[in-house]
Write a structure and sequence with these properties.
Layout: H1 25-40, E1 45-47, E2 57-60, E3 70-74, E4 77-78, E5 87-96, E6 100-107, E7 110-120, E8 122-128, E9 134-140, H2 141-153, E10 169-170
The structure holds zinc ion (ZN).
Length: 186
């Protein structure tokens, strides 16, 4: 089921998400709805607060973005990120590990606004998946940026809070929707 994405100004975007106590069928269905909604909006990520739910759940799919690569390491082994998409991350904990770098971001809750955001280039992630299993991995590139963008949503933090140039730029002509990526929204 495609859910309604709330836009900037909606109070849900500022509410911190509650931890998920049990990954049950209701949570799995919600995560599946998030994935369907993200894909319909052509985003690379979508967090529960963006559909009005104050829960620590977000979904990611960077597999359609070829021009901004991602890296993924599981147990020290490089893994093709596309093979793990879409990702459902529940109660995620992030540990930034890389140098900070600038990158363009958009957000599905801010149509037509893009900004230059500085974030750590890579991050270690520990979370539950949709089966309630603990997953941990390290990632870089667009995947790292998208995950950090979505993690912010779970704390009521929005990308406009982090814009280094403090100037929201209009989307270039013909740019696609965003959430987490360059010309992608999250
Ligand atoms: Zn966003």
């Amino acid at each position: 089921m495609i859910l309604e994405i709330v836009k900037y100004g909606h109070p849900a975007l500022r509410l911190p998400g509650r931890r998920v106590e049990a990954v049950d069928d209701e949570v799995r269905q919600f995560a599946a709805d998030l994935v369907e909604t993200m894909r319909a909006a052509e985003g690379v990520g979508l967090a529960a607060p963006q559909v009005g739910r104050a829960l620590q759940v977000f979904v990611i799919d960077v597999s359609g973005v070829k021009e901004r690569p991602s890296t993924l390491e599981i147990d020290g082994q490089s893994v093709d990120p596309a093979s793990r998409m879409p990702m459902v991350l529940i109660n995620p904990e992030l540990t930034p590990t890389g140098e900070w770098e600038n990158g363009a971001e958009g957000c599905l809750s801010f149509p037509e606004i893009y900004g230059e955001i500085s974030r750590p280039a890579s991050v270690e992630v520990k979370a539950l998946n949709e089966h309630g299993q603990t997953v941990s991995f390290r990632c870089g590139g667009l995947l790292s940026r998208a995950i950090q963008h979505e993690q912010d949503h779970l704390r009521g933090i929005l990308f406009i809070d982090r814009m280094t140039d403090h100037v929201a730029r209009a989307a270039p002509e013909g740019a696609g929707p965003v959430d987490g990526g360059d010309d992608q929204g999250a």
